[in-house]
Amino acid sequence: MAEESAGIDALSAENRRFAPPEDFKRDALVVGTFMYDEANEDFHEFWAGQASDLVSWSRQWSAICEWELPYAKWFVGAQLNVAYNCLDRHVEAGIGDRVAIYWEGEPGDTRTITYAQLLDETKRFASVLQGLGVGVGDRVNIYLPMIPEAAVAMLACARIGAAHSVVFGGFSAQSLSDRINDAEAKVLITADGGWRRGEVFPLKTAADEALATTPTIEHVVVVRRGGNDVTMVDGRDHWYHELMEHASDDCPAEPFDSEQLLFLLYTSGTTGKPKGIMHTTGGYLTHVAFTHKYVFDLHADTDVYWCTADIGWITGHSYIVYGPLANGATQVMYEGVPNFPANDRMWDIVEKYKVSIFYTAPTAIRTYMKWGDQEPAKHDLTSLRLLGSVGEPINPEAWMWYREHIGGDRCPVVDTWWQTETGGIMISPLPGATTLKPGSATFPLPGISAEVVDDNAAHVEVGGGYLTLTQPWPGMLRGIWNDPQRYQDTYWSRFPGRYFAGDGAKLDDDGYLWLLGRVDDVMNVSGHRISTTEVESALVSHPAVAEAAVVGANDATTGQAIIAYVTLRTGFDADVKTLRDHVATEIGPIAKPKAIFFTPELPKTRSGKIMRRLLRDVAEGRNLGDTTTLADATVVDELQTRAAQAPPED
Ligand code: WT7
Predict the structure, then answer these.
(1) Which residue owns the Cα nearest ligand 1 atom 1?
(2) Top mutation candidate among 278, 365, 387, 390 for ligand 1, by most atoms within 8 Å of CB
(3) What are the pLDDT digits (tens) for 422-471?
(4) Overall number of domains in the chain
(5) Residue 518 CA: which ligand 1 atom is closest?
(6) pLDDT classification of 645: cutoffs 50, 70, 90
(7) What is the residue range of 625's domain?
(8) What is the arithmetic mean of pLDDT over 378-387?
(9) Inside any domain, residue 84
């Protein structure tokens, strides 16, 4: 094919820009380019400086980084205790009375937990785990709702050198059992249930089902949250509050090696069995503390930070637990859904706790757009000074809506690109230093080096291609649990010597990076490689559209044809022709969808990513493959019915 080295075509252009506002710059931690300059000079020394500055060590390293492709070690020979860094040292520094967590349950009950209280709870639960036979290097599984005990459980493991493996509370018994067995975990920490959409969802019942096939689990600790009935197995199952009643708070934080396993976190990928991504302590903590501080311009004594992710995802690990707590931040943690009891719950919470930094996902932002401008308008959101986005490419129009309706046209929006595998943020603006373009994650952070390449691994200066990382970084994954071959094959084989993230990206004339989605989602229309993200963004730029998902379906004439699924904003209307013409105007006739289906919801994973694979199955009239990771399976049934009723036009 003529396009052999073409990578991915870059089609859309965005000309709006937002320089850091003067009053934001006045107090910003980073203004100008000094930090980039320092890192460019010597990235090892740069990270070592951050490690000394942001983390407390019990023993100094003998080497900053040892790199034997594809394995890195950071701060070799050094020792630290992660829980000490997140808790004890703040209490020792005299800020034990600072609020660590403002927790809000879905029904409206609240808890305020200071650093001193969180430390006390963590020490006691660490003793409990030791009493249950958990030792250094053991794995502990955590299957909890969004309650403070989830953070306590993770920190307690870190304190005693055990590794945690958190499984998102929305996953099924089968998923839990698979992950427990792969990790060979000794203890499971779960709850009776949690609150979601005004009801208690049972967790212990699912855990019981999983436990029927998990021979390595010796003990189960059950937190009481839902108040629902549970079955307790004598000798194996214990109530958290009963164990804690007699627990000793004498549990010193022993130092562990910088490469001690901190956690496993399983990511599904599109096919195959989930991969247990391994993260260790010293480099990871340095990376998440650094990025949390500088990307969010954290002023720990005054800011109230809120990351809306679930603790079961990497975002919750890095930017609810380890980054914010290492930095002594005050944060909000919320248990439930954004539309209980009404569509303005998030804005109600922002107003109530005077949240100043808000970090959420594009899928959530597009949902708020769909619900309408009147919801945030009901609340005083003037406490906000910075907004963040993560999880998917953010469409320029969603970015603009976020900035205007949530950020009051004054807050910088940082679009942060990273992955479970990278451990922490990799590509993002620094809000006091970077001029923003709506929809662009802008530049690699200081100390990070990314490059876009074409099919032949040749450097791309301007235009589309594959996003690769060219140097080790402190928070990088250390491998896949029990599967070194898969680690090598998945991340280090497509472009030898480089980490390939699986994402397409383009560089514009000013050197800004634009993420184009997973390369598996790229469409090939008449020999042009078009990114689903760009066509989706063009659709979302129409005032009537809240959200769009685009897929390439097999087509006898063009190779693939563009099929779009569109959700309209409440109170708006648009027809197929208008939207097709709109895409033609925005990007060009080549990107015009062949067919457009309207739908009230799009099929998404439980972490909010659009499942384009399923939409491709629908578009090509195939039986659906694995749908177990779908958040709401009825959405696809509905789409299949519609596809059968209304065949694509043209
Ligand atoms: C994939 C990683 C990182 C925590 C949450 C997701 C996509 C993530 C962005 C962004 C464009 C993004 C990528 C990436 N992604 N952030 N700001 N812009 N795409 O973690 O589940 O490991 O997913 O999410 O495709 O590879 P994850």
Answers:
(1) 419
(2) 390
(3) 999 999 999 999 999 999 999 999 999 999 999 999 999 999 999 999 99
(4) 1
(5) 25
(6) low
(7) 542-645
(8) 98
(9) no
